[in-house]
Amino acid sequence: NAGVTQTPKFQVLKTGQSMTLQCAQDMNHNSMYWYRQDPGMGLRLIYYSASEGTTDKGEVPNGYNVSRLNKREFSLRLESAAPSQTSVYFCASRTTGEGSNQPQHFGDGTRLSIL
Amino acid sequence: AQSVTQPDIHITVSEGASLELRCNYSYGATPYLFWYVQSPGQGLQLLLKYFSGDTLVQGIKGFEAEFKRSQSSFNLRKPSVHWSDAAEYFCAVGAPGRRALTFGSGTRLQVQP
């Protein structure tokens, strides 16, 4: 069972470059999420998609865009990378109809460094 | 707005000793509560969850947690820690109608031989 797959696992960028982080899940989940993890700050929500065709901003959306390509895939794009975006990025998914009582399933993360 | 506090940034215990990791939440009603574990270089794995009912919940790897409404707490416990339990632990809270979880800042557990 693959679960949630993130690519790439590691990436180094120069300031101003752009890139897209890919995420795919094979659990037929409706909702997908992008978080960033920084030391001492836990996980902070960047964007989420409650269902195919919808996206919403989270706690820290500035500098990012997302695309819910289909039910399986949810990508995160950095249009002009900044050193402050150096972080570990996690994608998660969960099944949901209503409410928040289902756990999220996480990928292994993308470690992104911006020089 | 809901929030989660994990007061202990770093805890060190000896192998075989008992463990309790603290989690306090802020929410006006009964929240949905989760504990996740993250091993180095890995994603987050769900240890256990609480929605309603019995306030003592059992999880994987011998962990349990107790929901105490009066204290707004959901502390994680294990009777005897193994070296493989060294990891970072995150408490998270969800709420009806809210689509995403709110995470605490994490507690890093170190296990001494």
Classification by helices and strands of chain B: mainly beta
Main sheet of chain B, how many strands, which sense, barrel? Answer: 6 strands, mixed
Secondary structure: number of strands of chain A: 11
Instruction: State Rg of chain A.
Output: 13 Å
What is the helical fraction of chain B, as a range of percent?
under 10%
Tally of contiguous helical segments of chain B? 0
Largest sheet of chain A: 7 strands, mixed
Order of helices and strands of chain A: EEEEEEEEEEE
H/I helix tally of chain A? 0
Mean pLDDT of chain B: 92
* End-to-end gap of chain B: 41 Å
Helicity level of chain A, as a percent range? Answer: under 10%
3D structure, described in words:
The complex is a heterodimer of chains A (115) and B (113). Chain A is mainly β and 115 residues long. Helices cover 0% and strands 49% of the residues of chain A. Chain A has no helices and 11 strands. In chain A, strand 7 (64-68) and strand 8 (74-78) form a beta hairpin. Chain B is an all-beta fold and 113 residues long. The termini of chain B are far apart.
Can you give keywords for this protein?
heterodimer; A: 115 residues; mainly beta; 7-stranded mixed beta sheet; 4-stranded antiparallel beta sheet; B: 113 residues; 12 strands; 0% helix
Topology:
The complex is a heterodimer of chains A (115) and B (113).
Chain A (H helix, E strand, L loop, with lengths): L3 E4 L2 E4 L5 E7 L5 E7 L5 E7 L6 E2 L6 E5 L5 E5 L8 E8 L10 E2 L3 E5 L1
Parallel strand pairs in A: 2-11
Antiparallel strand pairs in A: 1-3, 3-8, 4-5, 4-9, 5-6, 7-8, 9-10, 9-11
Chain B lengths: L2 E3 L4 E5 L4 E3 L2 E3 L5 E7 L5 E7 L5 E3 L5 E5 L4 E6 L8 E8 L7 E2 L3 E6 L1
Parallel strand pairs in B: 2-12
Antiparallel strand pairs in B: 1-4, 3-9, 5-6, 5-10, 7-8, 8-9, 10-11, 10-12
